[in-house]
Amino acid sequence: AAVSEPAQKCCTENIQPFLTSILEELMGPVSSGFAEVRSLFDKEVNEIIQDFQKTNDITKLKENVDQLMNLPFNSVKMEPCYLKVNLLQDLLQDLKSRFKVYHIDFVIQRTQNFMQELMENAVYTFEQLFSPSRQADSAKVATTIEKVKLRVLK
């Protein structure tokens, strides 16, 4: 009871007025990181479509989809996504001094983990939606892949 009122006053005066601007600042790098995940998924599926249109090879298509399933664990391809979030390092340094925010690396790591999880969900959903269509007429496969991609991105 003795601590509640001063703590409430401190939060109301020293933290709450800044929360909106802090969230806006932090959301820039986070949003661009997630946009990069979306862009990477889109690019990789487009490459699968283009490759299939050139070769019309169902076996190669299966290999490419299997490679897509490993995309979340491909650190080289995911690196540009993770780098977007590293900008949080500078933003959080300012918060650390002003608001005693600690464990900056943890915040960045968790955000990157969520990005990887999002990619895992995207490729899994893609594979689940596309899997029944693999035996379809090869003329329709590229269109089907595009439809599935758009559904996943939605």
From TrEMBL:
- The gene is Fam129a
Q: Which family does it belong to?
A: Belongs to the Niban family.
Fetch the InterPro entries from UniProt.
Answer: Niban-like (IPR026088), Niban_1/2/3_dom (IPR059060)
Q: What is this protein called?
A: NIBAN protein
Note one Pfam family from the annotation: Niban2
Source species, please?
Answer: Corythaixoides concolor
Niban 1/2/3 domain location, by residue?
9-154
Taxonomic classification = Eukaryota, Metazoa, Chordata, Craniata, Vertebrata
